[in-house]
Amino acid sequence: MEEQQRRALRRGRAQLVAALRVEPLWEPLEQRGLFTRPMLEELQSAGSRGEQARQLIIDLETRGKQAFPAFLSILRDTGQGSLAEMLTQECQSPPVPPQLPHLRPVELELRGEKQQKNVTPHERLSIPVQAESEEPRIPPVPARGSAADKRSRDQEYEMKADPCGHCLILNNVNFSRDSGLSTREGSDIDCEKLQRRFKALHFTVLTQRDLKAQDMVLELLKLSQQDHSALDCCIVVILSHGCQTSHIQFPGGVYGTDGKPIPIEKIVNYFNGSNCPSLRGKPKLFFIQACGGEQRDQGFIVDCDSPEAEAPGGSLESDATPFRVPSDHGDEPDAIASLPTPSDILVSYSTFPGFVSWRERSSGSWYVEMLDSVLQQYAHSEDLLTMLVKVADAVSAKGRYKQIPGCFNFLRKKFFFMCD
Question: Looking at the predicted structure, is the pLDDT value of residue 368 above 50?
């Protein structure tokens, strides 16, 4: 693309982002050979209409010499001739030379002038210097976490809807006798904390308690099949016993109250771009309080002392169950990696895969306790990943046995919660 055409697109970008109707453009853009189908699908997953328009204009600059006239023709064919005319005028207008600030001469003393009383005029040096009153004002850098900083939309997910999204909490406490799984005392405390926290963060919260595996799947499917077009985000929280499972993308599994496991990978894929189109380009957050296995981490010695909590055997319990290998040595058919690579997804685990996750009967799990505390203190100023690091640090300092939360992050931008 020629330089004046690129300049026209850059000058007109703000107007195009505000007014461009992108939906009618996809088919003619592919027919004219400007974009391939995978390219268009990636553009369509960019987020809101404005974000799609912005990315389209940026990508057009790399499409070659014929891209600009072809784009003007497509605009006219789709009833957006006014935008085509605007770009044509921008392309024909000459570049605006940068305006230099007004300069005035100022005399500088030569070295040693103060010691010489009789200095001739030519011994003074005149240099044009910008007048103090005309110095360009450099805007102050916004404080980290300030409104200005949090609204740099090119690098952050848009969170304008109120409520901003749905939050589904699946809380399994009582398990069938046949499952061999213990009652998860303290889990109701976790559930109540997160229910209050996410309501305060402008989510509509639905809580379901003691569901069998198939009923959990039905609730997840019901949420994924809703229309999220007017919302900006979706959250799934699962509080249950957990186990190791064979996997391709996301490790671990959670149990229904009947003792049947559901792979985390299967849960996440219900919400990916193929299965939940109305959440394409929007953040999908999963918080998993469950064991990743049976290993008990005794930690390693460090220079500083960490506070010792009650040793397991008192009120401290784990959500661990043995690793059960399916009879066919593979996951269920609908959990295999035949789905697209996930994007805009974050899965936060309460513990490292393969290790135990600890829970107090009287105060709930370490992970949820710290997650709720960190969200309360920092959600108004910090992005999600920064807060999860704080959660990991706080949990890792607890107890005789150790635990370290972690996450699988496929977010494309920073995520800030909506706060009052």
Answer: yes
